[in-house]
Amino acid sequence: MGADLASRRVHEESGTLSDSVARVVVDVTGVDRWFDYLIPDHFAAKAVVGARVRVPLHNRNVPGWIMAVLTVDDVAAEGFDARRLLPLDKVVSVGPDAPIVALIEWAARRYASRRRPFFVTASPPRIVAALGAPQRGLRTIDGVDRESWVDDLLRAPGPAVVQIGPNDDVTSVVVTAAMHGPTLVVAPMVSTARNIAARLRHRGASTALVPDDWARAASGVDVVVGARSAVWTRIDGLASIVVVDEHDDSLQEERTPTWHARDVAIERAQRLGIPCLLVSPVPTIAARVAAGNRHVVLASGVQWPTVRVIDRSRDERWGSSLLSGELIDVLRDPAKRIVCVLNTKGRARLLTCNSCTRIVRCETCDAAMTQPDPDRLACPRCSATRPVVCADCGATALRAVRRGVSRLRDELEAAAGRRVVEVGTVDERVDAAASVFVGTEAVLHRIDDADVVVLLDVDGELLAPRFRAAEATLELVVHAARRVRRASDGVASGEVWLQTHHPDHDLLDGLRRGDLTGFVDAETQRRRALSLPPFGALARISGPGADDAAEQLTGSMYVSVARRDGEVLVRAATYDTLADELAHLARAKNSRWRVAVDPPRV
Ligand SMILES: [Zn+2]
Ligand SMILES: [Zn+2]
Question: Is the dihedral of CA 486, 431, 227, 181 positive or negative?
């Protein structure tokens, strides 16, 4: 009775109702479904797919987005009585357009998520009443040569890899793309996006930096630039997408849904039939596999600084200290500005062989093995086990490597005979007079222009349990390479040092020689053999009730389920199969488990 009165009143206030129905995803925490509303005639022009609206729901007025526009007859065909529907209250703002809403549908399935977080990310940060006129007009750009190789890639749709040096400017790649029509540029960091936008503006391209310039981007400009979320920006007439530093893990959202801007960009480009350039000095296996033979190398290895691999297996002191003889020597040279990097989280715990001093590694996946009990070695990455024996020399006496990380700064200072500054993640000021710095990876965002950047324990990164450990190490090396001093001609004069017990590792060997082909082949084979992404699909279920989800999945013949430290790992042959199985999971009333598809830290 109450509801009837309420709806009649709303009907009267809304004037004539059209026979169109808006299917609305509501912006309400915990409500994971859509609701249908009649579209009043005077809203018909604005009530389009993607528009931000306000609708009545349980006697409240709540925000939402139109995910589809249907007719009264469509709704009747689904078995609902359209005459009982309430009208929507208001169209508030322009939102994502139909192709973006279709991309959201894909992503919600792919990442086993609700639609709402994607609608939030794809929406303008402020209300946009209407879109303005397009501001395009790029024909020629001053001062930049078109990259002819890139030009060729842009003539065909789909993903392609553009490999450049770590310190190369991507402007020429972006400009070449922009000559083919409106271009979306996605960069890992806001600061990088801002730099790219400034350079393009300087060369005469009309540019929108999102999210702030969302409305201009949607109206139409030559180039739209932004960080990760920019990949969801509505852009009229989009002709190509450029993903900058495709290897950078900032392109992935860490919280669920764990979408990756590179993978969303590839999907968006494929749906539109446009090219998607994946630019990186160290293209990932995922990018290489997606691009197939569409891969160009723009610069040779000359843009890389010298990478020195410091072999610690011959060093007397290595067992207890992170300071090699070479490091001590350079620390004592007061003219050298030195940055030392040691990540403390997520590193591998290392066991070494007493006779040959090699690190004990998994023969299947290359991770550092642990010794959970006296007779057995176990791999935390792929769960392989073997007896306690060194694979390199057959010895059976192993020991754990213990390092005094806590007194590292003191140790470095004692060796250097000058002050050593520990740089934290907090944005405190870094003493400009100091010349030796130590910290986690974050130190590389704070200190520029070093003569030597030293990764104190590259094995701890490289052999860590996560399956992307080798790629994460490469990313760290690129960060380091961007922090070393450059001469006036732009050529790196500083060096990157990698301290290891394992100098013959294919990645380190490749970095030293400036040719990663061997590493890429070996890593591709490892992933393929273990059916790891991109050769298989992976999800992690965690939180209260995860075991219940695991129980339900265990019966499926399409996925394999493994439990590890209170989490559940689910694998399938393809993301499509994985999505199907995850979509069928039933949730108990108070289960709070979360699904991370393609989880960043596994
Ligand atoms: Zn050995
Ligand atoms: Zn393994």
Answer: negative
* Token output for 99: 């192709």
pLDDT greater than 80 at residue 65: yes
**Dist. CA 221–CA 182, nearest whole Å:** 6
- For 400, residues 6+ apart whose C-beta sits below 8 A from its C-beta are 349, 350, 351
Instruction: Scan for tokens 């070996």, then name that residue.
Output: 522
The sheet with strand 385-386 has its strands ordered as 370-373, 376-378, 385-386
Phi and psi (nearest 5°) for 112?
A: 45, 55
Dihedral over Cα of 364, 369, 370, 374: its sign: positive
List the strands of the sheet with 306-311, edge to edge. Answer: 306-311, 495-500, 452-455, 338-341, 436-439, 420-422
Rounded distance from Cα 577 to ligand 2 centre (Å): 25
pLDDT of res. 155: 93
Cβ atoms of residues 106 and 597 within 8 Å: no
Question: Which amino acid belongs to residue 71?
Answer: T
**Contacts of range 105-109, beta carbons closer than 8 Å, 24 or more positions apart:** 105/67, 106/267, 106/271, 107/257, 107/259, 107/264, 107/267, 108/257, 109/579, 109/583
Strand pairing category for 17-26 and 34-40: antiparallel
Q: Cα 445–450–455 angle (5° rounding)?
A: 70
Tokens of 267: 């999907």
Summarize pLDDT for 139-149 with one digit per residue, the tens.
555 555 667 88
- Hunting for tokens 């790029």 — which residue is that? 138
Question: What residues pack around ion ligand 1 (CB closer than 5 A)?
Answer: 353, 355-356, 390, 392-393, 395
| Spatial separation of the C-alpha atoms in residues 361 and 119, rounded to whole Å | 44
Q: Is 301 helix (H, G, I), strand (E, B) or coil?
A: helix
Tell me whether the omega of the peptide bond preceding residue 211 falls within 30 degrees of 0, making it cis: yes
Which of 180-189, 353-362, 399-408 has the highest mean predicted lDDT (pLDDT)? 180-189
Q: Three-class SS of residue 398?
A: strand
Please, are residues 459 and 361 in contact by the beta-carbon 8 Å criterion?
no
Q: How far apart are the first and last CA of the chain?
A: 54
C-alpha of residue 513 to centroid of ligand 2, in Å: 27
- Helix residue ranges per DSSP H, 349-450: 408-416, 443-446
Instruction: Note whether 226 and 174 are within 8 A (CB).
Output: no
Q: Distance from the CA of 316 to the center of ligand 1, in angstroms?
A: 17
111-128 pLDDT, tens digit each: 999 999 999 999 999 999
> How many angstroms is it from 463 CA to the middle of ligand 1?
17
**Residues bordering ligand 2, an ion, CB closer than 5 Å:** 362, 364-365, 367, 379, 381-382, 384
What distance in angstroms lies between residue 393's CA and the mean position of ligand 2's atoms? 19
Residue 263's pLDDT is 98
The CA 602 to ligand 2 mean position distance, Å, reads 13
Strands (E), 312-427: 338-341, 351-353, 370-373, 376-378, 385-386, 398-400, 420-422
- Report in angstroms the alpha-carbon separations of 503 from 34, 164, 218, 508, 598: 57, 25, 51, 6, 30
pTM of the model: 0.92
